[in-house]
Design a protein that fits this description.
It is globular, with a radius of gyration of 28 Å. It is built from 7 helices and 18 strands. It is about 35% helix and about 40% strand. The two termini are about 55 Å apart.
C-alpha cells in the first residue's frame, strides 16, 4: 500500500472521522428540521437527506455540506473497515463487533428503503374495494383505448419522463396507440386558465404556473399534450391532475383516453372497506379514535381484518396504516371514507432485527465486563484475606 493509500485508510477508518460524520448528520438534521417549516417535509428530505451534497444558507452565507447519502455511505465504510476489519478480534471485543454488525443492518435498511421502496395512499368509502394505491407526489400519463370493455391495457409515461418535458418536448409512441404523443411544458404545480400566462395557448386555455406548495402532495401538475396521427391529423389539449374526465383523442372511428394522474401501484391483494368507525371525545367533534374493518382478498381467500392506529396490516412487503378519514366537513349521517397510508418496503423488519443484534452485542460486551469485574473483586478479596 502506498503512503497516500495508507493515510487514506487510517483517516477513513478512524474514530475521529466517525465523530465528524456524526456531527455533519446532526447539522443536516438541525438545518433540515428548521427549513421544513417553510419548504415542507418532501422538499427537505430530497435536499438534505437524499443527496450527496447540499448548500445551506446560514445567515445569508452559503454553507456547503455533505448530504445524507454521502455521510451515511462514508459512515458505513468507517464501520465496516474500522469496526469489523481493523478492530482486534478477541473475546473482549466480540460484543463490540456484534454491535457494529447490528448498526450496519440498520444502515442497510435505510439504503433499501431509499432505493427500493415506494409509498402512497388508498382511499375507500364503505363497500368500495381496490387493489391499487396511488403516490402522494409522483405523476404519470396513461393512454388507453376508451372504447375497450373490461380490463384495459395502458401505455404509461412515468414521472421521470414527464420531468424531461419541463423545458424540452417529449415525443413518444407505442404499439398500443396509432399516433405519436408529444408532451411539453410540464409543470409540477399549475392550473388551466384563460388569463394571461407566459405559456402558450391550447385552444382557449393555457397553463398558469403556480408557486410550489409547502406540502408536496398539494401540488397539482399540468402538461400540454399533442396527438399526431401518421396521416397528419393533430389534436392538442392541456392535461391537468384534477381534470374530471380524460382527454379523448379521436382518429377515424377509434377513441383513446389520455389522463394525467398520480402514479398508481398494484397490490398483490385487494382491500374492501366493510365499515369505518370514528369515535369522538365527549361533547366535541374531535375524533379520539378511528378504525376500519376491512376484508383482504387474495384470489378466493377472504380474510376479515381490523386496521387502526398503531395496528397496521402487514403482508407481502406492504404495510397499510390507518392515517386519516374524510370528508372533514361531514355532517352526521354523511358517508365517510377511510384513508390508509401504504408503504412498500422490503426492509420493513430490518430495524427490528438490527435492534435485536445490537441488544445481543451489548449483552455480550457488558457480560464480559461484568465477568472481568467479578474476577478482579475476587482476586482483591483473596489478597486481602491472605494478608
Amino acid at each position: 500500500m502506498t503512503q497516500l493509500g495508507k493515510k487514506l485508510w487510517e483517516l477513513s477508518t478512524s474514530y475521529g472521522t466517525a465523530c465528524l460524520l456524526l456531527i455533519f448528520l446532526f447539522l443536516l438534521t438541525l438545518f433540515g428540521t428548521l427549513e421544513q417549516v417553510d419548504h415542507g417535509l418532501y422538499a427537505v428530505q430530497k435536499k438534505y437527506f437524499e443527496s450527496f451534497f447540499v448548500v445551506h444558507e446560514f445567515a445569508g452565507v452559503p454553507l456547503p455540506l455533505p448530504g445524507g447519502v454521502l455521510c451515511m455511505g462514508l459512515l458505513s465504510w468507517n464501520l465496516i473497515a474500522g469496526g469489523l476489519i481493523r478492530i482486534r478480534k478477541s473475546r473482549a471485543t466480540a460484543g463490540v463487533i456484534v454491535v457494529h454488525i447490528g448498526m450496519l443492518v440498520m444502515f442497510a435498511a435505510g439504503l433499501v428503503k431509499l432505493t427500493a421502496s415506494d409509498d402512497g395512499y388508498l382511499r375507500l368509502y364503505e363497500d368500495e374495494s381496490s387493489e391499487e394505491y396511488v403516490s402522494y407526489y409522483l405523476w404519470e400519463v396513461a393512454v388507453f383505448d376508451a372504447d375497450s370493455k373490461g380490463e384495459v391495457s395502458e401505455f404509461l409515461i412515468s414521472d421521470e419522463q414527464l420531468k424531461l418535458a419541463e423545458d424540452d418536448s417529449l415525443r413518444l409512441s407505442h404499439g398500443l396507440i396509432p399516433f405519436e404523443l408529444e408532451l411539453r411544458h410540464f409543470r409540477e404545480n399549475a392550473r388551466p386558465t384563460r388569463e394571461s400566462s407566459p405559456l402558450p395557448l391550447a385552444g382557449d386555455w393555457r397553463l398558469l404556473e403556480l408557486e410550489r406548495e409547502q406540502e408536496a402532495e398539494a401540488n397539482i401538475a399540468g402538461v400540454y399534450a399533442t396527438a399526431r396521427s401518421a396521416t397528419g391529423g393533430e389534436q392538442t389539449a392541456i392535461l391537468w391532475g384534477l381534470a374530471e374526465s380524460p382527454w379523448v383523442v379521436e382518429f377515424g372511428d377509434r377513441r383513446w383516453g389520455v389522463v394525467l394522474r398520480h402514479k398508481r401501484y398494484r397490490m398483490p391483494f385487494s382491500i374492501h372497506l366493510d365499515e369505518f368507525t370514528k369515535l369522538e371525545h365527549p361533547g366535541t367533534d374531535i375524533p379520539s379514535e378511528f378504525s376500519s374493518e376491512v376484508t383482504q382478498r387474495k384470489g378466493s381467500e377472504a380474510l376479515p381484518l381490523l386496521i387502526r392506529m398503531n395496528e397496521p396490516l402487514r403482508d407481502e412487503g406492504l404495510v397499510l396504516f390507518q392515517s386519516s378519514w374524510g370528508p372533514s366537513n361531514a355532517q352526521p349521517g354523511d358517508r365517510l371514507f377511510s384513508v390508509f397510508s401504504v408503504v412498500r418496503n422490503p426492509s420493513d423488519h430490518w430495524p427490528l432485527y438490527s435492534c435485536i443484534i445490537i441488544g445481543v452485542g451489548l449483552l455480550i460486551a457488558f457480560t464480559e465486563k461484568l465477568i472481568k469485574y467479578v474476577k478482579a473483586q475476587n482476586s482483591q478479596r483473596a489478597k486481602e484475606a491472605g494478608v
